[in-house]
């Protein structure tokens, strides 16, 4: 016996008449009669006694109805769970990037994500920008984009993409005549960084510090847009990832220069807390994130 037969029997009993069952199931009278005959043929016994215009359950019908309630309840539960898993699940993803306040990629990611998960709210936690891993461990955000993974059993790191750090300078800057810059080139420059300490800044960690070089001046600006405006005004140089600089690279007043002959590359990760019952939509969000930002 098929699920549609169980729904038919349940509807006839609950609605009290064939006419009402027809309306509920959106069937024609002939279709309803045909399905009922099919059910009785499959069972090999009458399901209803026909008494005048009424249908009264037989003993076999009573047994089938009891089973129908149990089976249909479970089927409805499965359908709800599947729909919820695919599209109807509700929740929130609180996220932040490390160092950058550049979120130009968010609309494209959300456009893809919202097709499959329209009830998941994605929030950007700007206040966690400079301490995303700490905020993740404290439960204040759910996902962090970082290039500096800290070994911790509570955190899972998923590789997103490799990026290259580029020096951003105004079009009139002497560096625009160079194929690349090295540590000593920073000795006369005002280096704009997003946050202290300087030891956490990638270009300092991997290029300046090993060469024992300090920039002539240091300006701390937590906002990417403000830092770029400083560069436009020829008030300093900025070293940032290409993906974060992407919205600004079409401006005619700006140029980029490679850092070191080999280039300054980093691996970016999505950091999330290890949890055996983590919702599946996290995996989908990270997938769309990787597709959009990957260079």
Automatic annotation (TrEMBL):
Keywords associated with the record: DNA-binding, Transcription, Transcription regulation
Pfam families: HTH_1, LysR_substrate
Domain HTH lysR-type: from-to ranges: 1-58
Family recorded in the similarity comment: Belongs to the LysR transcriptional regulatory family.
UniProt cross-references to PANTHER family, sorted A to Z: HTH-TYPE TRANSCRIPTIONAL REGULATOR BSDA (PTHR30419:SF28), HTH-TYPE TRANSCRIPTIONAL REGULATOR YBHD (PTHR30419)
Annotated protein name in UniProt: LysR family transcriptional regulator
């Amino acid at each position: 016996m098929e699920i549609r037969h169980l729904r038919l029997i349940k509807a006839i009993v609950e609605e009290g008449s064939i006419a009402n069952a027809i309306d509920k199931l959106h069937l024609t009278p002939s279709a309803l009669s045909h399905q009922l005959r099919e059910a009785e043929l499959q069972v090999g016994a009458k399901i209803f006694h026909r008494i005048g215009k009424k249908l009264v359950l037989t003993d076999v019908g009573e047994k089938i109805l009891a089973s129908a309630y149990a089976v249909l309840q479970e089927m409805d539960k499965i359908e709800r769970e599947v729909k919820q898993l695919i599209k109807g699940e509700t929740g929130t993803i609180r996220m932040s990037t490390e160092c950058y306040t550049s979120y130009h990629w968010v609309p494209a990611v959300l456009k893809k994500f919202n097709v499959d998960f329209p009830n998941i709210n994605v929030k950007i936690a700007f206040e966690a920008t400079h301490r995303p891993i700490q905020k993740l461990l404290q439960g204040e955000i759910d996902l962090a984009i970082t290039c500096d993974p800290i070994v911790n059993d509570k955190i899972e790191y998923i590789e997103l993409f490799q990026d290259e750090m580029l020096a951003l300078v105004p079009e009139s800057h002497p560096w625009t005549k160079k194929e690349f810059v090295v540590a000593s080139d920073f000795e006369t420059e005002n280096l704009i960084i997003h946050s202290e300490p300087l030891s956490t800044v990638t270009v300092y960690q991997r290029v300046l510090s090993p060469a024992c070089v300090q920039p002539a001046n240091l300006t701390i600006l937590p906002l990417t847009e403000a830092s770029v405006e400083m560069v436009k005004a020829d008030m300093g140089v900025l070293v940032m990832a290409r993906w974060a600089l992407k919205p600004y690279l079409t401006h005619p007043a700006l140029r980029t220069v490679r850092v070191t002959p080999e280039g300054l590359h980093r691996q970016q990760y999505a950091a999330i807390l290890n949890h055996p019952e983590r919702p599946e939509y996290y995996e989908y969000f990270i997938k769309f994130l990787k597709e959009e930002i990957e260079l």
